[in-house]
Specification:
This protein is α/β, with parallel strands linked by helices. The chain has seven helices and 17 strands.
Length: 359
């Protein structure tokens, strides 16, 4: 009997090619689409997101083309947790990362729970990442071969005991090759645009989503400089993120950036670029995919999706907490974001940034 794989099919080219590759390798593939309740059926909206009704139809067309059983799972209630998390983090002065939560809670949480119920041996997705072996033989998430598309950063929260059951079929491929293979096999989504927005945030309007989700919060306050001098008023601190330069609401003679957000006083501090530099960070809820070091250990630290990992040292603090020190200070270390640590191109672990360290 062939081994069974449940595959998250989003209706995009990446998961579609993943289905074709798994099928070609002889696996018994079951396609699963996560219905989240996020809708948006205009052509423009459809080109920017995933998980809509139109995406479900695209995924079904691919499944039919490949003769793969296909099911739609209702995750709308679970997805509401991610939406609540997203809004509440902004209202706590933090910058959320819903893609990481979706991977932990849904794609490799609820989806794998369903997979086990139907006798699956593996769960698979169309992520640009790999499952590779560390020198000690343990499985780790590894960077995708196409470094421009690498998604290992958002997978550092995956539990180490799950890694043996995960497949990333396109992890060793370049995006151009994925599209070429989709066209070769006449998959109907071979030229479908990539999703570019968070699926539940219409038109990339984060502020509108947060205020609709939490309409009764009073968040207007004061904009100040690094010395505490008042520069103006703002309509809500949830509209700001650490490192933001545009949309500050006050004109300056030179670039200014958000360097601090204080929800308790509703104060947003702006400063010059050099004021963004931090020597390190502290993070909690840290998930070790590799062995936890007994003391300070060298690593590479990535603090956001578009950040190039930099040399650093990690020190476990106990109870799921770590301190990370950069060799060279880094700008815009944002509480609420994930820090993913690497050993070469393998994930060592990841956690949630609580605060930046300036000394």
């Amino acid at each position: 009997m062939p081994e069974r794989v449940v595959l998250a099919m989003s209706g995009g080219v990446d998961s579609s090619v993943a289905a074709q590759l798994l099928k070609a390798d002889g696996y018994d593939v079951v396609g699963l689409f996560m219905r989240t309740g996020s809708h948006g059926e205009s052509e423009e909206r459809r080109a920017k997101t995933c998980c809509s009704v139109a995406d479900a139809l695209d995924a079904r067309r691919v499944a039919d083309r490949l003769d793969v059983p296909f099911y739609v799972l209702d995750f709308e209630e679970d997805f509401g947790r991610i939406q609540d998390y997203f809004a509440d983090e902004y209202l706590a002065g933090r910058t959320p990362n819903p893609c990481v939560m979706c991977n932990i809670w849904l794609k490799f949480g609820r989806l794998w729970e369903y997979g086990k119920q139907v006798g699956a041996d593996y769960v698979a997705t169309g992520h640009y990442a790999r499952i590779d072996r560390a020198p000690d033989g343990s499985p780790r998430v590894g960077r995708g071969r196409d470094l421009d598309k690498d998604q290992s950063y958002v997978l550092s929260g995956l539990a180490p005991e799950l890694l043996e059951r995960i497949k990333f079929p396109i992890g060793a491929m370049a995006k151009a090759d994925v599209r070429a293979l989709a066209k070769e096999h006449r998959l109907p989504v071979h030229d479908k645009p990539e999703s570019q927005e968070i699926c539940f945030v219409p038109d990339d309007d984060y502020l509108g989503f947060v205020r609709d989700r939490r309409p009764d919060r009073e968040t207007a306050g004061t904009l100040v400089d690094e010395h505490g001098a008042v520069l103006g008023e703002h309509s809500g601190f949830e509209k700001f993120t650490i490192g933001q330069r545009r949309g500050l609401g006050v004109a300056f003679g030179e670039p200014r950036y958000v360097v601090q957000i204080e929800p308790a006083t509703k104060t947003v501090t702006v400063g010059r670029r050099e004021a963004l530099a931090r020597t390190g960070l502290e993070a909690s809820r840290f998930n070790w995919q590799g062995p936890e070091p007994e003391g300070p250990a060298p690593c590479l630290a990535q603090i956001r999706a578009r950040h190039r990992a930099v040399p650093a040292t990690v020190e476990p603090l106990g109870e799921g907490r770590v301190r990370v020190r950069f060799e060279v200070p880094q700008p815009a270390v944002a509480p609420g974001q994930v820090v993913t640590l690497y050993q070469d191109d393998l994930v060592l672990g990841g956690g949630w940034i609580d605060r930046a360290v300036a000394d």
